[in-house]
Amino acid sequence: MGAFADEAWRRLQSNPAAIAALCVMCAILALTWFGPWISPNDAQTLDWLHLAAPPGRQSAHWFGTDRLGRDLFVRTLAGTRVSLAIGLAASAVSLLVGVTYGAIAGYVGGRTDHLMMRLIEILSGLPLIFFVIVLTVVFGRGEYLLFFAIGAVGWLTMARIVRGQTLSVRRREFVEAAIASGATTGRIIFRHVVPNVIGPVIVYATLTVPQIILFESFLSFLGLGVQEPGASLGTLISEGAAEMEAAPWILLVPGGALALLLLCLNIFGDGLRDALDVRDGAP
Amino acid sequence: MIRYFFTRLASAIPALLIIVTATFFLMRAAPGGPFDQEQTLPPEIMANLQRAYGLDQPIWTQYGRYLKSLLHGDFGPSFKYKDFTVTELIGQGFPVSLQLGVMAMALALIAGILLGTFAALHRNSMADYATMSLAMVGIAIPVFVVLPFLGILFGVYLHWLPVAGWESGSIRHRALPVIALALPPLAYIARLTRAGMLEVLRSDFIRTAFAKGLPLRTLMWRHALRPALTPVAGYLVPAVASIMTGSLVVESIAGIPGIGRYLVQGALNRDYTLVLGMVVVYSTLLIGLGLLVDLLYAWLDPRVRH
């Protein structure tokens, strides 16, 4: 595994776009973490003297303020933090569900596998975004629902990939050895199979995060996701879109942040996929 | 072929039934009813309302009735847009959404295939890198960021195009929403076409055709394009799904009176029948389309049928 990781890291380094994306991502992370200490403003304070003030280096608000006089720089950082947190948490949920589901289906095989894959087939034929919208109508809107709903959407591809990998791993000698030494099925799946399919899992987890952030901000943009006073990037963008003719920066700042974040995550994920040489049929 | 059609149909219908059933019962399980207002209604009026909408019946009766009326194309009354049935709202909005979606899909297909082919022919040149970087941007940046950005650029600063609105027959009003909506599938199609094209260009029959001295144009159009587009055919349904999803925000941002906006409004107003109806319409479209694409595949490639 060590040599494999070294090789992958070496290949990743020869991809300048992926490395640049990684650096920008780290910079964004550092900013969301330390941003509150850099800027004198905080996200909720209303500055009545500077309502919808344009950005400028002279003013106290580097990226301007929104309609209520809240500092956009700090608000965008806070929104990025919310978006990232939801993205990572929901990815973790989908990772957990997908890996477990896929490993069980692939290892147990037979009729169980057939049934489990049939379910995935049906689910992936459904327009899940509409289902999530229905869920928000039924259960009201809030962050916890978002985890559940988005996690429920995100695991399908992961399960498919893990199953495919498991199918090839379960014929290997170390699995046979584990069976011969009397390990239980659960132990074999989680101690022997899962660690050996981790490469593709990492790649897909990386590619899932931007999808989920996109999904979350989409819902928040429509007013179905994160609710006031909390704000994710989607919420901020929808506020900005309402004011774009009079005060375009209210849109441009969070919109640019989301675009940059998603772009970096995608470029890095693609680079990682090439470095680990995982094929999935996607270009 | 006919047998294949029926097996596929047999799996499409349960999927649709699952959606309708799950959505129906979820809606009924929701806390709070559609008539909850800030001021509580007198119980007699509430009872009358419930009776008028059939909500006093047992849930299974309601479900049976809903399914039966669905078969007649009747989605029931809208709870919030009084005086309108959901069927009427769909009838108003659907042609608009359909027009928007078809235009976006056509743009995505044509431009995506052209760009992908172009990039494959100039592999590893600056033009290739530029096209693929653009494709990455198109895939990564969401529609609801792209459309307002385009609006600020072409509407607010340059004054070339209107930012919102949907006057009938006006191409200028359609330009920005259609471009924004088409961008993600366009970018993905360009990548798929490039990858498929590179694969085909390496194959023996292309090398033979090239050695034979066929002009490049004939080679590309007559020989390479069709096999290179197989992955694109597989992406058709996800592309339509992406355009449907995108149309929710595009219609909301640009103020286009289509069904996407009704779905969002219905979700915000908790208008049960409206959301239910919209979900049924979208799902039917998507599943029907999936069926169609599968049939297309089976027709193109006989191996699929078995």
The largest interface is:
A-B, 44 and 55 residues
Please give the CATH class of chain B.
Mainly Alpha
Helix % of chain A is over 70%
Q: What percent strand of chain B?
A: under 5%
Poorly predicted tracts of residues of chain A: none
Quickly count the helices of chain A.
Answer: 11
CATH topology of chain B: MetI-like fold
| Number of structural units classed as domains of chain A | 1
Quaternary status? heterodimer
Q: Globular, elongated, flat, extended or rod-shaped: what is the shape of chain A?
A: elongated
Poorly predicted segments of chain B: none
Largest sheet of chain B: none
Largest β sheet strand count, sense and barrel closure of chain A: none
Distance between the termini of chain B: 10 Å
The CATH superfamily of chain A is MetI-like
**What integer value in Å does the Rg of chain B equal?**
24 Å
In CATH terms, the superfamily of chain B is: MetI-like
Verbal overview:
The complex is a heterodimer of chains A (283) and B (306). With 283 residues, chain A is mostly helical. Helices cover 73% and strands 0% of the residues of chain A. Chain A has a single domain (8-32, 85-276), classed as Orthogonal Bundle (MetI-like fold), CATH 1.10.3720.10. With 306 residues, chain B is mainly α. In chain B, helix 4 packs antiparallel against helix 5. Chain B is flat and about 85 Å long. Chain B starts with a helix and ends in a 6-residue tail after the last helix. The model of chain B has no long low-confidence stretch (mean pLDDT 80). Chains A and B meet through helix 5, helix 9, helix 10 and helix 11 of A and helix 1, helix 5, helix 6, helix 7 and helix 10 of B.
